[in-house]
Amino acid sequence: MSTHDLNHEALAAEALARIGAANNAEALHAAEREFLGKSGVVASLLAQIPSLPPADRGAAGKAANQIKGRLQAAIDERAAWLETQAIESDRQGLGFDPTLPPPRIDMGGLHPITQVTRELEDLFASMGYHILDGPEVERDYYNFEALNIPADHPARDSQDTFYCKGDHPLVLRTHTSPVQVRAMERLKPPFRAVAPGKVFRQESTDASHEHTFHQMEGLVVAKDVSVGHLIGAMKTLLAGIFGKQVEVRLRPGYFPFVEPGFELDARCPFCQTGCSVCKRSTWIELLPCGLVHPAVLRAGGIDPEEWSGFAFGLGLSRLVMLRYGIDDVRHLLSGDLRFLEQF
Amino acid sequence: MHISYNWLARHVDLEGITPQALAENLTLSTAEVEGLFPFAPHLADVVVGHVLERVPHPDADKLGVCRVDVGQGEPLQIVCGAPNVAGGQKVAVATIGTCLPGDFKIKKSKIRGVESEGMICSERELDLGDSHDGIWVLPAEAPIGMPVAQAVGAGDWIIDIDNKSLTHRPDLWGHRGMAREVAAIFERELKPLASDLPPLGAGAPFPVRVDDAACSRYLGLAIDGARQEASPLWLRFLLLAVGQRPLDLLVDLSNFVMLDLGQPNHAFDRSRISQRGIVVRRAHEGERMTTLDGVERALVPQDLLITDGDRPVALAGIMGGADSKVEGDTSQLLLEVATFAPGVIRRTSARLGLRSDSSARFEKHLDPVLPMIAAGHFANLLRAIQPQVEFPLQLTDAGTWTDPARRLSVRPARIRSRLGVELSDAAIVSILSRLGLTPKLQGDQIEIQIPSSRATKDLALEEDVVEEVGRIHRYGNIPTQALVGDLTPPPADPRRRLVRKIQDRLAGAARFRETIQYSFLTDSVLDAMGLAGERCVEVQNPVAEGQGKLRRSLLPNLLEAALKNRQRHGQVALFEVGKGYLPEAANAQGEPMEIHTTAAVLAWPAKASQGTALEHLHAVARDLLLHLGHDLAPAEALGDGHGYPAWLHPKKRIALRSKAGGQVLGFVAQPDPAVQQKLGFDGDVASDLAVLELSIDRLLEEPTAGYRYRALPKFPEVKVDVAILAPDSLPGSEVMTLIEAAGKGIVVDIELFDQFRGEALGADRRSLAFHVKLGSEGRTLTDKDNQKFLDRLARTLEAAGAELRRS
Predict the structure, then answer these.
(1) pLDDT per residue over A36-46, tens digit each?
(2) Rounded distance, CA A232 to CA B423, Å?
(3) Contact (CB<8Å) A262/B475
(4) Where are the domains of chain A?
(5) Given an 8 Å threshold on Cβ–Cβ distance, is A138 in contact with B591?
(6) In chain B, which residues have their Cβ closer than 8 Å to the Cβ of A172?
(7) In this prediction, does ipTM exceed 0.90?
(8) pTM (2 decimals)?
(9) Residue B599 near residue B555 (C-beta atoms within 8 A)
(10) Cβ contacts (< 8 Å) between B537 and chain A: which residues?
């Protein structure tokens, strides 16, 4: 073995050692550049060849290329190893704590009243109900007179009314019921309709009273509609709302625009033996309803001898409160993000 | 209204019916029971004691030391300060451990050195009256050691009935009416009522002239020789049970008859009324009177008065006058039992804000037959307690009343069809009979007789009778039926669909929070926004001063909400879909135009690094409109012609205009800086603020381009970044038009990615940098196309006074 060969061997050993010691891609790159790069060690070996005696040139070239090949293979091997290492090390999940919460990003969302209203609209639409709107600034006629509540009727007391200034007898509607006669004027029987919306009562507010809230009126006019139909429709409605069959009971309730009139109670869906929601009675007073009073049918241009109907008024705000266990009705229209962000 | 179980039992046999069963059945058949509670439960814990002796306290003049036998073990030693306690009395004793009203627990104690093993109670301490005269002396026959409740017959249950459910039932505003229901429900007999008048003297009837038809009947019964004294225990307990404080016999009896039969009545001191008699008339303009409660009331001509000719002695059906009230030993009385027009009573009572037990009953429309029964009832009760009373005059019976009782024919088939239940004719007849409607089946009809007590208000139509049958049969016994019928699906509702899309996009992709706001505006916000003079729908009776106006736009309330939320949140992104009310666009009936809009507000700290709120909200708005299918015209300033709100920033406002219809659909803008400050976006909550408003009504009118798929490029596209130095006089939209024109046919997309100004650029110039995407549907673009585009752009920009900055 010549000194030349010995030099080459030393060079190769040093290079292989460096490659083997490269612990990351950069170090490996640096080694690659140093040994195999344009002005690297192997390149300078090759560059020396022309200056060698012609007889030695073949062997020297061969030796240099052999070194180049060995080094290239070592680099490739090392690179593959480093990649495997990197994957392995990533798999260690160093510093990752799966128990930490993600950053807070408010993803936006719909108001709970909107959510519940939509569910009900979809439920009713699927049963052939029209979804109607009515004015919020309403004529006294539709809000009271047409509903069989003439001036001086004591029922006006229980509906503390906002009266509008001006020459016309206008009120902020105290319920969604004015849509009943408006619907009768527009639609030909038989028909089914619901009307969700905002209603207003002039009363002082507390955790369970609010001057602005939401209701959904329902009205069905057809031939020979009976109390039995009303009960059936209400059961379907409640099954839709609570996602299960709910036992209901009707008891007498007085509303001038229905006869007979009822309060519908639902068996408390939250307990078996009485809880704070049902005030320990196991029944929740859920909605007033009844058969449409003949005077109301007539006000809507419908002959009560030929047609009959039922109507109900669902408290949307109350339903939302029930569903989510909201203890203060004033949160609903507060615009408070601490409340809204929960839905 | 409170109903006493014991009181009901005076009218109907309640044997075997627990208070709980009674409450449950009344709820299901008659009226809502809101509560059931025992009367004075502490009376069950207090026992009858026998005072064996009373000796003076060794160390206190006013105290006595009593030995009291309570029927258990040694007599108790009790220190008592009452002056009226004496040996031999039966008294109510609260022994050690008993709890009295007010959470007052009796403990063993030493009073001035003498041990006391309980308390001898006064009526007041037992919550039975206001009398502070001393201890309550029980009847001598009360058995020692027995609970006081039992000894004096005070064990009772109170049924609390929701007044609202009695609005249409004047007959249920007294115990007898309620007992009639109980009798019908449980199929029992109503006990007879002694209501025949006792023998009357021969004196001429007390003169009463009814000048107004609003008093349908006026009965006057003269009573002489009644003594003022405390009522018997049974009467006091019944009154206490339903929440009435016993006063003296005459007042108590008057209340008792009202609560028993539902018929208000009033006793005048006959000697204080002019002997010319009573005149029932309307008030004169400017007339005044002082009512029993000591308040002087200004009257108006619609008020109905009981007068003695000149002077008002009572506000008819509402409250007596202070001048003629029964005081001291009034020996000459006139008992008024009358009926009045409900509307008249209601209007006066509402106007004066004066509601009484009496007015609450009259406004339900009382039966004019009832006064005679009530007068007889009162007279008989009084005579039973004070046999010496006399009725010296013939009865006065004035007024133009008629008996409202009438016949009605109903069809059993109709009743079955409305209820949806198979009930035999006989079953229907049985129910109607129990309700006292004396039904007679005749062919396919049932003839019923509506008694006067039910005829003034709720029983008039066949439907009313459907209710009677249904509630006694019980609605729970009606089988569920499914609605059937040939129904066409309801037509599509474009607005509802549009609203849902808006809500979903804003609450979803844009990550805004939906809120629902009050329709009322606050004057302070309107002031801050310079909107105080704006015409709004207004209510006469707002919940609070300065909250009477209804919104025209959703934005004032949204800004207020944003401000409140900014105190707790860095970023506030809220939107609402709702109505504005425009009074100037009212229809013939005066209904204001209700406009449908959506509005949003975005607020974050003033020096945030994420770009401006206005830019962000503008992006949200454009995305929303594109999502709704509207191809948008290039952004433009919201000009003076667009009717924008005056509180917007004079420059920072952008119109949103659709390409197809050309309407301005809404705007995004920044509020004027001074308005922001006035609203309170200041200090810690100083905000970068932007608002959005879109008209849903206009969106519905506007033709939509609809979603159209654009084919994916078949040939590679090239992205070219161009930086353009443009004078402020050249709007960005025009710069973009120039870019589009320079690459006509090959410009696929232009996106602004940077803009800046700097001294080096000159004062009125800015640099705008765009990513421009070039592509062709037919071939791969070459460097040449690219170069041609840039050269052409450089030329057109130069012509427009701008400059393409080459890198």
Answers:
(1) 888 888 888 88
(2) 19
(3) yes
(4) 3-93, 112-340
(5) yes
(6) 519, 539, 550
(7) no
(8) 0.86
(9) yes
(10) 137, 164-166, 170
